Amino acid sequence: MSRRSAPLIPRARQSIAVALAACLALLAAETSADTPQQREDRIKAALVFKLVKFVEWPVTALAVNDPLLLCSLGDSPVGVALAAVDGKPARDHLAQFRRIGGLSLADVKGCHVLYIPGGAREIGGGVPVVLRGRSVLTVSDAPDFARRGGMVGLIQGENKIAFEINLRNARESDLEPGASLLELATVVE
Amino acid sequence: MKMGPHRSRRARAIAFGLASAAVTQVALAVGDDPFFDLDLKEVLNLEITSVSKKPQTVSQAAAAVFVITADDIRRSGATTIPDALRMAPGIQVGQISSSVWAVSARGIDGRFTNKLLVLMDGRSVYTPTFSGVYWDVQDTVLTDIERIEVIRGPGASLWGANAVNGVINIITKSAAATQDGRVTVGAGGEERGFASVRYGGKLGDIGHWRAYAKGFDRDEAVIAANGDSGHDDWRQHRMGFRTDFAPGGRDSVTLQGDYYRGRSGESSTINFLSRPFNALAGTTQDVSGWNLLGRWQREISSTDSFTIQGYVDHTFRDWPAHLKEERDTYDAEFQYRTRRLAGHDLVLGTGYRLSRDRMGPSYAGVPANTLQFATFSPDSASRKLFSAFIQDDITLVPQRLILTVGSKLERNDYTGVEHQPNARLLWTPTEAATVWGSVARAVRTPSRIDDSGLVNQTVLPPFSTRNPLPLPTLLQGAGVVVSESLVAYEAGWKQRLTPTTSVDLALYRNDYDNLRTGRFVSPVCQPSGLPVAQYCFLLPGQTQVLQVLQAENLAKGRSHGFEIAADWRALPNLKFQLALSQFAMVVREEGNAFSTDREGSAPEQQLALRMAWNPRPDTDIDLLLRHVGELPMISEGVAVVPAYSQLDLRLAWRPLKDLELALVGRNLLDKRHPEFVSELLDVAPMLIERSVFGQVNWKF
């Protein structure tokens, strides 16, 4: 098979898959009753996606035409909700979604944002050192995440989702949260 | 053939999404979620739920909660809020005439049922006239409702008096979530025509707005006795707006208001103290009202926040042969929440409400000597209500065991201070299971009619079966009552059995004390005031006999029952939902008193089975099969309403993304059937008719 014709087939398959996914998603969306739990998960996913707009990555980690990679650990409902960002524009980049199975160096390589579900075993003893200084914005709904080595902790505010930012942890990883983001967050040490 | 890294990632993401959608029920999440299109401030302002005045997911609530979502309402084809409530377990909905419903939770149902609290966006909509709800004026564009939280059991420790048997919390979408235009028009048999339009937009960088207008014209039902038209056709229009601002990340401000005006008919059984004594008259009732509400929420820190809310509500009702009433309510509330103390989630609040009314007789369209069903003395009153509450969620075992204790203290003008405490224990042994139990006290404080009203129930003509005297006899409810109280014991279990099935079981026992009763006291002649026992009716100049039903609190009641709500997503596009309610009640009266809260006013069994199926992505097929058990006795002398089963069906098709055509059939199993009869006997018993209508929804 020649190199030229090869991509055509996957592309066709891919568009069928996308169309199918869209149909199923639509179908599912129509029949789904959005429970408060699901709603909460959707809000969290939207929040993770929206954070991207306010954070500066070093050029070494995110070049001009690079896609912006949002990673999610394991099979959490928030992760599933987040999968829908794949292909959406995120500032000057295109968002991509990736599910990762663990927090090893190989797993997180290339991730710009990493969502870790609150109950994940992997962060039971705090955020793994491997994530430090790697320009990966770590986000989790684990209790006190931003105080335990993480950068952005999702917390429940008055009937809403709010977030905490640990500025020191972010800056240590060469990430610069914008001023307007800090205005909306609770900054913790 | 090897895919590039980019493509394989994408394919994996899709595969992941698909698998998850099929397996985990969080299907909505993989859709093109509109939340992703909001900006950060708006996302931060999205509300999760308001079950207990603070964020809690339903599965975490130590109470019997059922949430009717926007999707449930749309797919039910309901055109009124009471109709939408029929799908909830533990809620009894009976239609009396085209614009009148009896709605209650866990028994004691009636047109004037007084143990259910109903809120719309934080505004209490029960009327202090009789502590009940005028359902005909509780409405909005139904597609703008975000959800209806149906809480069975007392909620008085947070929400205050009258949240005895349940709380219904109607919550509309935020303005940010209604940014498009939407037009709905429809018409059919019983629904002669209805239309609504809603449009939303941005307010600079800090907020959003929406405005709506709607109107409808409903056909009349049928009088059960003779098959004649019930004269109860109903027209209403309303308009309103909502704006939501987020001036800073810590603040969110909501301002909203509504205005409505309507006219509905009724086949009233009117009474006179002279010939013909009783008659059936087609009457026309005029209603109007407006309200304005503001709410400011501030996040002080990650642990502390407060909410300040205030509203003004004006209602007017000109109800022939009943009363003419005008009411202004002013309400202010403050609430503070803190999680500063480790292991405690504390919320406390205080409130003040002033309700001012002007009551009078209404003779619109009826003879000037018509006896009014309700008269008030004084005819104008201002009633104040002060309240304070505190509730603490104490984490006993992190993520596993939470104890909630709290109480509300209220001071009302009728009975003084009322104390309404509760204690709840929530145990989450696994992520998929929740077990809870609670003990709570609630009171139903006297209403205006209990305190300073007379109820002229009926006139018995001279020499009739129930009145052998030569004078007409007026049956009149009178007297002052104290608060009715309830101690409720509840337990529940919520379990996700498989990724596609879940079940929610609630058990309860309610012990009522001081239930309102009536007692026949010795009849007297009027105007002399001499007792009938002294043959006063033989004296000259006597016009009638007054038989007073002395209102007192001489009954105790006990009810128990259970409710099961089960969900089964058989296929990604096929969902079943079951709501089963079982209820039993015994009322014990002292001496010859009889309770006005009849145990037979609610069915012992109720069943609702819903199916939501999408044979194709652009087609909805929805089915609601309901069975409602017999109503043995709604009130003294009111006939039995037999058990009935009904079927509602909705078919919808979306030929274009923004266009939906729907065909709705309601009450399909019968041409007409009885559902409920007003316990005051003020309306002729009616039959509710089958209704089929078409509807077009267009987004722009």
Automatic annotation (TrEMBL), chain B:
Annotated Pfam families: Plug, TonB_dep_Rec_b-barrel
SUPFAM superfamilies per UniProt: Porins
Signal peptide positions on this chain: 1-29
CDD domains, per the entry: ligand_gated_channel (cd01347)
GO molecular function, one term: siderophore uptake transmembrane transporter activity
Chief location of this protein within or outside the cell: membrane
Subcellular localization(s) per the UniProt record: Cell outer membrane
UniProt keywords, alphabetically: Cell outer membrane, Membrane, Receptor, Signal, TonB box, Transmembrane, Transmembrane beta strand, Transport
Domain annotation TonB-dependent receptor plug: ranges: 59-167
UniProt domain TonB-dependent receptor-like beta-barrel: residue ranges: 231-668
One GO BP annotation of this record: siderophore transmembrane transport
Topology within the bilayer: Multi-pass membrane protein
Annotated Gene Ontology cellular component terms: cell outer membrane
TM annotation in the entry: none
PANTHER family linked to this entry: HEMOGLOBIN AND HEMOGLOBIN-HAPTOGLOBIN-BINDING PROTEIN 1-RELATED (PTHR30069:SF29), TONB-DEPENDENT OUTER MEMBRANE RECEPTOR (PTHR30069)
Protein name: TonB-dependent receptor
